[in-house]
Amino acid sequence: MNIADVETGLIRPSMKERQRQLREDAILDAAVEFIQTKGFNAMTLEDITEAIGISRPTLYQHFSSKEDVLIHVGIRNLKYAAEQLAAMDPAMSATDRLCLFMGWCIDRKFGEHREMFYDMTRLVMSCGNDPRYAGPQGAFIKKLEELVSLAQAEGGVRSDVSATILSEVILGAMKSLTFNRLVQEGKTSPAEIKDGLTKLLFCSKAA
Predict the structure, then answer these.
(1) 112: containing domain
(2) 191, 201, 203: which is closest to 171 by C-alpha?
(3) Is the sign of the CA dihedral 105, 106, 110, 113 positive or negative?
(4) Strand ranges (DSSP E) for the chain?
């Protein structure tokens, strides 16, 4: 620990811990790529180890199976989403923050640097109600519900439907494979999806 750490009271991870985290992220990144290109069922642990140049025993130091890898992909995605919500300027209205978050979700799904964010969530849930995932998911949904409730209190989001239902609608819409197909077939666009969801959920004066 250096002087700066002592003065700030922060405990920085050791070099070994940082290297472990970097290796874990590389494993998860490779898994995402193979799931996108080959599909989860066709992906093997050998695909991952060969792609990033590690041995099978090294991979097992992090994850016990490809299902375990998938669970952690989902947990990491929830972490990204929670960080995105937390990073938004609290001086902004809840309505604007919710709208921005929806835009971020759509960009993660269809944008230039897209990731199978919510599609991964769907796959994770197919592995069963794993408590390692269920806990972070419940905490994230609670934060999203709180934001929706604030937006309702502002009059920016329709209040004739509960915040719980609206939160699930937002997440469910982002998970929908129908949107994937429609975009791929050229029948809609990410901008049109965002515009449609905004009109469905937000009050006209806010939209």
Answers:
(1) 70-207
(2) 201
(3) negative
(4) none
